[in-house]
Design brief:
about 240 residues, alpha/beta, Rossmann fold, 7-stranded mixed sheet, 9 helices, globular
């Protein structure tokens, strides 16, 4: 398994892990999130203000956020994922106006200032260098473009935070053995969530990468923190 937390994750190991979980990815997400994942996807897509925009959905998996972006009026979506199997699964769903790319978030195969928005859902913490990833997202965004990052977080209520931590440590791996095609991958999921930095740290990373107007919205009691920011300048 890749090392959990901020650094040290080997891209080939992350790719292999997500290749293995692809066959039952949607089922596992729905069960392990207690059905909240659909709501998180909708809110993430809405935050990107997709109507009429060209958007790159990074760590797109089989395209669940991509589909929401299209539903909300995106003109075109580049759905990029490191996992071959995730891209193959998504491409087989027949979504219109999508370009599927098997690629690395740290080296996007996109020109400077070419995208209106970037979305990444539960994928930033899997990058070997999340801060370099944020800088890469800034590179491909046009002036005034939006970045939306959905990531797991620690609930702000101490009692709920304790319950949630117990769920991650004890219950999630057990449930994953039943619903997932690769249960050990979900032990990594739990460990990476617990090791991920807090909201203020991520907001600071976004500012350091050149983004402004960083906003944070908690979802589902703080299980997920949605960060939105923009590249300075007026849209062309």
């Amino acid at each position: 398994m890749p090392a959990a937390g901020r650094d040290g994750k080997d891209a080939s190991l992350v790719q292999s892990m997500f290749d293995r979980v692809a066959p039952r990815y949607d089922l596992a997400n729905a069960v392990l999130s207690l059905g909240q994942d659909a709501h998180w996807r909708r809110v993430t897509a809405l935050a990107a203000r997709p109507a009429g925009r060209t958007i790159v959905d990074v760590a797109a998996g089989p395209g669940n956020v991509t589909r929401e972006l299209l539903k909300q009026g995106a003109r075109h979506v580049v759905a990029l994922d490191l996992s071959h199997n995730m891209v193959r699964e998504g491409a087989g769903r027949g979504l219109p106006d999508v370009t599927w790319v098997n690629g690395d978030a740290l080296a996007l195969p996109l020109a400077d200032d070419s995208m209106d928005a970037v979305t990444i859902s539960f994928g930033l913490r899997n990058l070997s260098d999340p801060r370099a990833g944020l800088a890469e997202f800034a590179r491909v965004l046009r002036p005034g473009g939006d970045l939306v990052v959905a990531e797991f977080a620690t609930p702000t209520n101490p009692v709920f935070a304790t319950i949630y931590r117990d769920y991650l440590v004890a219950a999630l791996p057990r449930i994953a053995r039943v619903v997932s095609s690769d249960a050990p991958a979900y032990r990594y999921l739990a460990d990476s969530i617990l090791a991920w930095p807090d909201r203020a740290t991520l907001a600071g990373w976004m500012t350091d990468a050149g983004f402004t107007d960083v906003q944070v919205k908690d979802l589902s009691g703080g299980i997920v923190a949605l960060h939105r920011a923009r590249v300075p300048g007026d849209p062309s």
